[in-house]
Amino acid sequence: MDYNKLFSAVVTRSKASAIRELLKILSKPQIISFAGGLPDPNMFPTKDVADIMQDVLKNSSREALQYGTTEGQESLKQELVSLLKETEGISCQSGNLLVVSAAQQALDMVARLFLNPGDHIITAAPTYLGALQAFHVAGADIIGAKSDNNGVLAQDIEAILASLKAKGEICKFIYLVPDFQNPTGTTIPEERRLKILEIAKKYGTLIVEDSPYRQVRFEGKAPKTFYQLDHGEGNVATLFTFSKVFVPGFRLGYILGPQEIIKKLVILKQSMDLCTSPILQLAAKEYLKRGLLLEHIKNIVAAYKEKRDLMLKMLKDHMPAGVTWTHPEGGLFLWLTMPAHLNAAKMLPLALEHNVAYVSGVDFYPQADVHNDMRLNFSYSSREQIIEGIKRLAQTIKENL
């Protein structure tokens, strides 16, 4: 059977995740991996989850084990309304929320909702690889806007929008990870956010704000979210997930947005999976209701800050001249840039020989046109692995220089 005659156009546009493919070859225990975007499993609230799951099955088994509503369990959504008010100063209603199977499903749904093949969108360059995958599958024309150490440049976004308008074309949305961006770790300052929001309104395009790491802040004051800065005017939809601040195995997230968008997303989700797991939603609701989430976040912030500080120190002590890196105020990643003549993807086999792994930066660029960057994760590895792994990575780079 020649299946290529049967596959859809969507499949032909799909390609495997560079990160997921790399993780397959990292089974050797001697390899120290900075490649994945994984939380530290030692930080998982295992006992609390076990206690809550038992309580949910004992007290709410009919609801927990039955089909749920596509919109999400109402009891969880009410807890999310309270959480957003307490932590972000955002006032919203249950109708502004849709519970999804983590942020990756949210990205897929956003792509399905807004994009036809050939439609234009803007992202930062570089940006989150999983988002690029979702948008590529939808057939989007992804235009990368330039970035600096404070995130995407507002003036470059405006230049792209102006160019599209001059050709009689529109941008469907601007996709941004404003806080501790994956992959760079940079944060967009509030003043720049306001400028970007103003530009989006001027050109009549939506901002899709992806916020998986926002609460994992080590230092400094958090800028307001794009959603809060928009004051409910309907120009922003924000994606949240519990994967980085609770447990990724629950695959739980939620979309905050204008009710008109949420209603359309609900219809899409009905055709995808009917509903997100009710038992996991009820467990998450109970975790929030007991006040455990914010305490847990304090613990992971302290642990990840210590690891970030150690990685920054090791980079300073061991990297050769000409190599630079970002100083993230939070999150899980930092971004390392080598001299322009080096190629991180071509260097990876040598790094693996030295038993250290990273993700090449080229896959985070919409046009795959920059080759001397890499993403390093500091949340997953132990202190000892960070110390030894950065030494191995520095040696690999020195050999290539």
Task: Provide a compact summary of the structure.
The chain has 401 residues and is of the alpha/beta class. It is 45% helix and 15% strand.
Keywords:
401 residues; alpha/beta; Aspartate Aminotransferase, domain 1; Aspartate Aminotransferase, domain 2; 2 domains; eight-stranded mixed beta sheet; four-stranded antiparallel beta sheet; 15 helices
Give a structural overview.
The chain has 15 helices and 14 strands. It has an eight-stranded mixed sheet, sandwiched between helices. A four-stranded antiparallel sheet has the order 10-11-14-13. Strands 1-12 form a two-stranded parallel ribbon. The mean pLDDT is 95. Strand 10 and strand 11 form a beta hairpin. Helices cover 45% and strands 15% of the residues. It is globular, with a radius of gyration of 21 Å. It folds into two domains: 148 residues, Aspartate Aminotransferase, domain 1; 245 residues, Aspartate Aminotransferase, domain 2 (3-Layer(aba) Sandwich). By secondary structure, it is of the alpha/beta class. Helix 6 crosses helix 11. The chain starts with 8 loop residues before the first helix and ends with a helix.
